[in-house]
Design brief:
The complex is a heterodimer. By secondary structure, chain A is an alpha+beta fold. Chain A has three domains: 3-87, Beta Barrel (OB fold (Dihydrolipoamide Acetyltransferase, E2P)), CATH 2.40.50; 91-158, E3-binding domain (Dihydrolipoamide Transferase, Irregular); 190-382, Chloramphenicol Acetyltransferase (2-Layer Sandwich). Chain A has nine helices and 18 strands. In chain A, the strands form five sheets. Chain A has a six-stranded mixed sheet with strand order 9-18-17-16-12-15, with helices on one face. In chain A, strands 1-8-6-3 form a four-stranded antiparallel sheet, with no helix packed on it. In chain A, β17 and β18 (347-361) form a beta hairpin. By secondary structure, chain B is an alpha/beta fold. Chain B folds into two domains: 2-197, Rossmann fold; 210-336, Rossmann fold. Helix content of chain B is 36%, strand content 18%. Chain B has eleven helices and 14 strands. The longest helix of chain B has 15 residues, at 6-20. Chain B is globular and about 60 Å long. The chains are: A alpha+beta, B alpha/beta. At the A-B interface, α3 of A face loops of B.
């Protein structure tokens, strides 16, 4: 029997993934391990390898389709097999169904139905959709056998408003689509409250410079992630997520780090951050950021965060109101560290200060908890530290 | 201008061509015998009175003989108009027609012409399996034959004249339900369209189709009787707001694909209706050419409405199922429009 090819398992926060591209065509000879197709999920692109050697017998899901994980997307013919060996798409349940008792009735009933989950489009409609930039996958089909036809594209065009002055029309799909969906979901469901405070980061800056002199280059993000990993275990109600109408409080700290990439915003996860040294944090984070920018993150590197850090300091932003990364409870936004005159022990000194913006979901916790967490974090930032680290 | 049936229009066409050109003559079974029908469907009725039995030539019952005589006469300078009583009998002359007449010009490097006309009635009219076939697809597959299929009196006369004047063998298919034959030769259920036919000399060019009814939603191509089934379906559907364009190619070889393609490019949908058997058929060829030449204009799968792959049945209820009906055309149009089928 031909080998089936499945869409890979998903990240926790996404219900479908986008089958972005088929690397091989039907009929191509392939070996197990060859990259077969790519998917975009949870803000990353991932190549999926062929599970078997043989011939790519039939592609069931065209590029550009959203598919649930573990959906069969293709059949690979093993040596000696032909497309005739591909099992019919009918499920065993359907075959056992009482409606299919007589052969002739089956044929008639089946031919009247749309062909599975795949949506077809007529050549004429596709031509129009491409000319006009209509995302036809989103158009309600009314044609024969559930296909999208010209009038459906025309209806979508008629629903558009005045477009004079339009520069370009970009599809809200792929990573942009995932971000859009999740941001909308967050904005629609979270009860966000943002607390802002200012911390004195002078010692933090000195610490970083001192480490650099010793040959250890760490970023402010590395320092902040390490600090968060130390503080969060004392405030575990912020190390939580809302799922199935229950607040899930996690004992392990997995920190998401928002990374701006050409492909869009991504949040790779530093797992078990509370168990890692600063050196480990720095090394791992560097790798995650590089992978995120290269688009080579694996789905598991993007899932399971319990708290997220987002930093716009490098862009000269002082403070902002982050959006909670569902289903997490809270997210910390960090602004730029800048020199300001500050009162220290009754005297004005030039200090380096930073704004912290903590957005939390008021459904999960109240302001007091969040404020105490923020206070604790500020203390951590402001504390003097020894300029040595354990090199592991 | 006169109002004529197709049988009358053909008769007038033959008469005028015989008057115009002394090399034109008719041959066939019982086409000029005194007191006879004037051919199986009255087309040559009365012509022997004007032209005599030398030019309205009654033959023995031998189709291979008719064909051989006609082909030989054509090759040697005459312009014969031969006929068979039923198109089914063309099979009796297959070697003469397919192996000799169709190939002669090619095999002689163009030095030998075969300017003959072979007329053949087709269509299922309660005459069973051997007097009722629609053979158009069969003969459009033979290179070297031109094939015409008029569905109106105007086209019948105009195409007959073009066929007589053409230097190639031309096969003319005529539908038994469209002749308008009278008396003992009138057919049950005949449509007998009567149309205006000019008195002056005119021709209908071989290879030019016509739009019988303009419409923007779907192109329906028919020929002979199925043109009228398509027009009936179009009338019914118009009441439901569906505008069907009906095309009658009139000539099957060469086929006016430009007309069909231009129409499909506008409507995006094609239904082809034929009385021929479905498999490897004429509708299949039209569909294939449209799929090749106008694929990106198509908004729905192409649908064929054909007779099933059986001989025409004799029993009237079976024949009613066999011959494409208006309702089957309507069903196909509704399908390509994505509309629900009519309740039964």
């Amino acid at each position: 029997m031909p080998a089936e090819v499945l869409a890979p398992p998903l990240g926790t926060n996404v219900d479908t993934l986008l089958l972005a591209e088929w690397h091989r065509r039907e009929g191509a000879v392939i070996r197990a391990g060859d990259p077969l197709f790519s998917v975009e999920t949870d803000k990353a692109t991932l190549d999926v390898e062929s599970p078997a050697s043989g011939t790519l017998g039939r592609i069931l899901v065209p590029a550009g389709s959203d598919v649930p994980s573990l959906t069969r997307v293709a059949w690979i013919l093993l040596p000696g097999e032909t497309t005739a060996d591909i099992p019919s798409e009918a499920t065993p349940e359907a075959i056992d169904g009482p409606a299919l008792a007589t052969g002739a009735a089956v044929t008639a009933a089946e031919s009247a139905l749309p062909r599975g989950d795949r949506v077809f489009i007529s050549p004429r409609a596709r031509r129009l959709a491409e000319t006009e930039g209509v995302a036809w996958e989103l158009v309600a089909p009314t044609g024969p056998e559930g296909a999208v036809i010209e009038r459906d594209i025309r209806a979508a065009l008629a629903a558009r408003g005045d477009e004079s002055g339009l520069l370009e029309r970009l599809p809200l799909d792929g990573i942009r689509g995932v971000i859009a969906r999740r941001m909308a979901e967050s904005a629609a469901s979270v009860a966000p409250v943002t607390l802002t405070t200012e911390a004195d980061a002078t010692y933090l800056v000195e610490h970083r410079a001192a480490l650099a002199e010793q040959g250890l280059r760490v970023s402010y993000n590395d320092l902040l992630l390490h600090l968060l990993a130390g503080v969060l275990p004392r405030h575990l109600r912020l190390n939580a997520s809302l799922r199935d109408a229950h607040i899930h409080v996690w004992k392990e700290v997995h920190l998401g780090l928002a990374v701006d990439t050409d492909r869009g915003l991504m949040a790779p996860v530093l797992r078990n951050a509370d168990c890692k040294t600063l050196v480990e944090v720095a090394a791992e984070t560097r790798g995650l950021i590089a992978s995120a920018r290269a688009g080579t993150l694996r789905p598991e590197a993007l899932r399971g965060a319990t708290f997220t850090l987002t930093n716009l300091g490098m862009f000269g932003i002082d403070a902002f109101t982050p959006i909670v990364n569902l289903p997490e409870c809270a997210i910390l936004g960090v602004g730029r560290i800048k020199e300001v005159p500050a009162v220290v022990d009754g005297r004005i000194e030039i200090r380096r200060r930073v704004w912290l913006s903590l957005t939390f979901d008021h459904r999960l916790i109240d302001g007091g908890l969040a404020a105490r967490f923020l206070q604790d974090l500020v203390r951590g930032i402001e504390s003097r530290r020894e300029h040595v680290v354990a090199i592991t | 201008m006169a109002l004529l049936t197709i049988a009358e229009a053909l008769r007038e066409g033959i008469r005028e061509e015989m008057r115009r050109d002394p090399t034109v003559f008719c041959l066939g079974e019982d086409i000029g015998v005194p007191g006879g029908f004037g051919g199986a469907f009255t087309v040559t009725l009365g012509l022997s009175e004007e032209f005599g039995h030398e030019r309205i030539l009654d033959t023995p019952i031998s189709e291979i003989g008719i064909a051989g005589l006609a082909i030989g006469a054509a090759m040697t300078g005459m312009r014969p108009i031969a006929d068979v009583q039923y198109g089914d009998f063309l099979f009796c002359m297959m070697d003469q027609l397919a192996n000799q007449a169709a190939k002669m010009t090619y095999m002689s490097g163009g030095t030998v012409k075969v300017p003959m006309v072979m007329r053949a009635p087709v269509g299922s009219t309660r005459r069973g399996s051997q007097h009722a076939q629609s053979l158009e697809a069969f003969f459009t597959h033979i290179p070297g034959l031109k094939v015409v299929a008029p569905s109106t009196a105007y086209d019948a006369k105009g195409l007959l004249k073009s066929a007589v004047r053409d230097d190639n063998p031309v096969l003319m298919f005529e539908h038994k339900l469209l002749y308008g034959s009278k008396g003992g030769r009138s057919e049950k259920g005949a449509l007998s369209p009567i149309g205006e036919v000019p008195d002056e000399d005119y021709t209908v060019p071989i290879g030019k189709g016509i739009i019988r009814r303009p419409g923007r939603d779907v192109t329906v191509v028919g020929k002979l009787l199925t043109v009228y089934r398509a027009l009936g379906a179009a009338e019914t559907l118009a009441a439901r707001g569906i505008e069907v364009e009906v095309i009658d190619p009139r000539t099957l070889v060469p086929l006016d694909m430009e007309l069909i393609l231009e129409s499909v490019r506008r409507t995006g949908r094609l239904v082809v209706v034929e009385e021929d058997n479905r498999t490897h058929g004429w509708a299949a060829e039209v569909a294939a050419q449209v799929a090749e030449e106008a694929f990106f204009y198509l908004d729905a799968p192409i649908k064929r409405v054909s007779a099933p792959d059986t001989p025409p049945p004799f029993a009237p209820p079976m024949e009613a199922l066999y011959v494409p009906s208006e309702q089957r055309v309507i069903d196909a149009v509704l399908y390509v429009l994505g509309e629900p089928p009519d309740a039964r």
